[in-house]
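Why does residue order matter? Because the sequence determines the fold. Keep that principle in mind as you read this record.
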Amino acid sequence: MARILSRWCYHAPMSPAPAFHPAYFTVRFRCSEPHPAWPAEFAIISAQATTGESWSPEQNQAADRALAAHLSKLELWHTRITGYSPTTLHAEPSWAVELPASRARELGAKFRQDAIYIVRAGELVVVSCDDNREQQVGG
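Structure:
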């Protein structure tokens, strides 16, 4: 079961599910600064290279800037959050954004993602951008 480490970062004890790449179940998240109030439900979306693909740093940065600009135009609550692997230490800048899962999936697909995360009442769920598959992370 995922649990809140503090008011602004999550730790999810992981067990891989066969429907998703195992990397989705080993992720940890960190934030550079606390936020006084997090929504009860929000999405975590990246615009970085899709799992299994390699993009140049410039491509990743351009995609991240485009996602940030898109979120700003929508005038939704959002904040920087970084997903990282505790074993490889690979880190991926992402955005926590207050969006319903259906809209978050669409946004993830628009930014070429295989999956996104949804946090619902402190529980972390990985959600496919291609279909309605979802799997709780941990627990």
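DSSP finds two helices and nine strands in the chain.
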